[in-house]
Amino acid sequence: MSAKASERQAWAVEVLDVRPDDRVLEVGCGHGVAVSLVCGRLVDGTIVGVDRSRKMIELASARNAAHVASGKAAFAVSTFEDADLGGEPFDKVFAFHVAAFWREPKMMLGKTKAVLARGGRVYLFNQMPGWRSGTASGFAGQLANVLASNGFAVDGPILADLASGSAMCVIAGS
After folding, report:
1. Could you read off the pLDDT of 120-155 as tens digits, one per residue?
2. pTM (2 decimals)?
């Protein structure tokens, strides 16, 4: 299955700076393209992709069949709040345009804190059609405030002007 990554997915995985032994969680993994990119950086680490859509998990699992077979990747059909992710915490939790993080922050960020390792980081990415740098920056500031008001220490937003438009990521730790 083709694993062609979009510019925004490649950028997001660069920002994640995945280490070979990281334990990573992607919330809203969709087709699993970012999971493929992350697996390319893992040696002893693992990634779990969660998506509420059975169809997306089927596609992600097929795309990453070799990574699943090797134990680097696993997938779960579930909402994030209901996902059984086991007891081992994650070094990095990321999501790309998962609106529940700013629409239902107490629930989403509470679950994030529960699964994040000590010293771990959450990365919330977004890119909207028609965004310009000022719009992305403004949204990043709003999202940073949401994270801070829910007990996270915000490392700061990262902005990128991609060919497909401006994108942002807010990084925070608990």
Report:
1. 999 999 987 665 556 788 889 999 999 999 999 999
2. 0.93
Sheet bearing 46-51, strands edge to edge: 73-77, 46-51, 23-27, 90-96, 116-126, 165-173, 153-162
Helix ranges, 33-126 (H): 33-39, 54-63, 65-70, 100-103, 105-115
Select from 159, 163, 173, 93 the least CA-distant residue to 126. 159
Which amino acid is it at 122? V
Domain that holds residue 81: 7-173
d(CA 155, CA 103): 21
Provide the pairing of β-strand 165-173 with 116-126.
Answer: antiparallel
The answer to whether position 97 is within a domain reads: yes
Q: How far apart are CA 82 and CA 106, in angstroms?
A: 14
Number of domains in the chain: 1
CATH number at residue 71: 3.40.50.150
| Tokens 């629930």 belong to residue | 107
